[in-house]
Amino acid sequence: MTSLRWAIADGWTITRRDLIHWVRDPTQVIFGVLFTIMIALMFAYLFGGAMIVPGGGNYREFLVPGMFGMNMLFGIGATMEAVRKDIDRGVTDRFRSMPMSNSAVLLGRSLADMLNSTLVLLALVGCGLAIGWRPNNSVGETALAFALLLLVRYAFVWLGIYLGLVVKTPTVVQTLEFPVGFLANVFVAPSTMPAWLGTIADWNPLSSTVAAIRELFGNPGWGGDSWVTQHAVLMAFVWPVVILAIFFPLAVRRYWRLSS
Q: Locate the ABC transmembrane type-2 domain: which residues (predicted)?
């Protein structure tokens, strides 16, 4: 319990450090909010007329949950860049020389990124409500949908932290966000893709989250006959847990072997 208490206390100290940086230079946070809103408006008003909604439903109710999911993925690059920047500036080495919990620096980074992601998500929710999106199911199902979004985001944060510790040029890996994001069920039904590509899209963790929240919000979705599509809510929980179980220990282990 003492170790856990110090891990939480040290982690919160690092979180405050990152938040203070954002307060002093809010450019990244403001740009993230504005970019997310711009993409949502662009798809809603520029491309919306060309999109066919499954079952003839409201296109914006179909679009917005997909944008929620894409937003949870697109923060990986920023996380990687922040981790890499601390390493290159020697800040990480200084933290490692201090008497603090093994996971505190990485835990603080993940909590700060989650606060940032929650802010951007709230801005996107406000944008969605303004353009006509509505959750049509119960309050409990709506809350579960948002919980699944934040869960997959936290898993992606730890993937980004690990990649930031391993990859020396984060900008190269940042280019993978768009292929991974678009190789999903966000804008196109996997059933319209070649069979092998559609299978990959179905088993994309992002696809499970987007399908699950569309179901929980009561918004239109693509449907599908595959097992993973039929159990979207279950897989929207399983995928993030698996990602966390893999990349959390890998990140902590890599952090303490940076100089080896």
A: 27-258
**Which of residues 145 and 107 earns the better pLDDT score?**
145
Alpha-carbon distance 117 to 154, whole Å? Answer: 9
Instruction: Collect all residues with Cβ–Cβ distance below 8 Å to 253 and sequence separation of at least 6.
Output: none
**Mean predicted lDDT score pLDDT of the chain:** 84
Lowest mean pLDDT among 207-211, 224-228, 245-249: 224-228
| Amino acid, single-letter form, for residue 100 | M
The residue among 93 and 210 whose pLDDT is bigger is 210
Tokens of 5: 């208490």
Lowest mean pLDDT among 43-47, 170-174, 203-207, 210-214: 170-174
Instruction: Assess contact for 233 and 239: CB atoms under 8 A.
Output: no
CA 24, CA 249: separation in Å to the nearest integer? 32
Q: Give me the residue label for tokens 């999911």.
A: 69
**Cβ-proximal residues to 63 (8 Å cutoff; 6+ apart), any chain:** 40, 43, 44, 48, 51, 133
For the ranges 107-121, 146-160, 210-224, the maximum mean pLDDT occurs at 146-160
In a domain, 260, yes or no: no
For residue 113, the enclosing domain spans 2-48+55-255
Burial state string for 175-197 with b = 16 or more CB within 10 A and e = fewer than 16: eebeebbebbbbbeebbebeeee
> DSSP readout, 124-157?
HHHHHHHHT----S-HHHHHHHHHHHHHHHHHHH
Domain count, the chain: 1
